[in-house]
């Protein structure tokens, strides 16, 4: 170990010399100058002193003041100066993949290095990290995953948890774990960083830890609300013709509701009604109960946004525009629409950029660069640009007022949340983004009266999402009883949602009756997907039908590759229907579409294929790469047959694949009753439900299966099921749920509950005969 120490020391000195060289080079000097101009620099000594004397520190400061890029670097630099550059290990967590990647690249550049030297990153299934990496930016999920195998974080000297004000589920969870770890690791340092000023909350959670605020400066920003914008831009209202039935009905309902409401508050309603029209019918719905207008969750009023952008580009002074959208899909569709616009799509006038997780880093860099003179930069982004990414030359902000959190993290059990109104704090934060370099302007695309109804702060994620993955993680980290553990959170979730999650994990067989992790549960906790999708993968491996199952799981955890452009909805839906044939399965349709695309790719015609079939090539590519990762993960965990060819022996057996889908998606199940002219679908919890119109099972005259299993249901005005697959009675009986739960009897009893509820006689018969057969079999 003395030899080891000497080697480390020598290495540390080398690192120190190399940094000095860089800092004395012309580029290095320039960079250093920039870094010294950031507000955080003034606090450098105070920060480092407090860290050396306290185990926990809470840091707050305006977005852009240098928390994320500077503070971890200060620590690294002070370690290097103290000749510990080869032995320290600093981990800085980010709530999102893209910020982990973007920030690490930036910090490496500030240090005159390539990524993977002293600075690296690691996100799910991807990373850039070398032998000498001492400062690692990773997602919170990655650190939790590491805790799975390294409970004491051996060798780690500093943990920095960034953006804690967002109160993401993973971050709240990590804080409980770290709070327990600190007494066991007295030398470990924990730094919490937050943009807004609720530092006291975190400080008191850690027994009154010291806090340091970095004062920042921003220019004033003028706020416009919808009523001002309509007036300023003279937006022409779109007539309500050319609307499909669904839309027409919705408009009709909205108008009726608006009339009722009008009697009470005519003034607000006229604004709201204008808003409904202004944003075109796609953009707005109306909720009278809360007496406010709201965006239609399906889509934003693109025409209106386009109109506002045109106004700014052609009438307002120069300066970048940052548009806050709800999610990736919206960003892409809007970008396509804008690119086709004569002014906004003209590259000599407008540099149009999208900012999202899966974009290539070359495009990522453009976001931070100044465009050429006379070219206006427009960046379409999600709420991640609120705090984790700072674009300096933004002067105008366009805020749609909604946010949808989509996450690919394993621990986040919500693949798709409905867009909902942001909080006042978020709106303020978005507005602030316009005042980085000079006074700015913010266009809030909703009426002032709607803003007034926003909550002050967003509810912590732990209190508004299903907790299944989290509970599984608590068990696999051996953190004790789930309820007790979660009661120690900053703001503990409701008992009921914890119980729901535990019950769900028991139903799918991840936990036994005593809440102990089963073998299946342990395997599920290793896979970076939701438990139900993990179960599908494992069964796909066990039953040797891996290829199609991997495609389905990848599709469900990335996003739907089937596009439904609004103006070509029918064409798109019939294109999708071709992939289903008589299979009555959206999941199998996805498999066919993916396989067709692979074939087309081999013949160099992937793009034509996508174009013709309304498929997103980008999504298919993402699915493709995720599949590869699944394969390696399964191979590593030796779930795949040694003889690799075997794992697809049954891939062409559609019935088997259907059964595996059922096993994964249960208890997401609804009964099918074919009536003369229509089909009635029912779930146990919701009663009647509907299918999204792009499902292959929607609008068919008959579904020849008594059951549909589905991945996801969304409540809008009715409950809608997204993708579904038809299954037979016997498949449901054998694959639905967990046969080992309470023995065969227990399993059948539970299914019996479904059977009684739906009062389905054919299932009853199958059930009885199957029970008899199985009992006989067991007796033998
Ligand atoms: P905070 O975490 O406090 O919000 P950051 O450390 O992310 O602030 O950013 C500090 C400053 O560094 C920003 O104001 C911006 O000027 C600059 N910066 C950050 N990332 C980049 C980048 N990728 N390219 C250029 N400048 C950047
Ligand atoms: Mg930051």
TrEMBL record:
UniProt keyword annotations, A-Z: ATP-binding, Helicase, Hydrolase, Nucleotide-binding, RNA-binding
Record has ATP-binding as a keyword: yes
Documented EC number(s): 3.6.4.13
Lyase recorded as keyword: no
Span of domain Helicase ATP-binding: 48-215
Name the UniProt record assigns to this protein: RNA helicase
A GO MF label: RNA binding
Family: Belongs to the DExH box helicase family.
Domain Helicase C-terminal: 304-478
Superkingdom of the source species: Eukaryota
Catalytic activity: ATP + H2O = ADP + phosphate + H(+)
GO CC annotation, single: nucleus
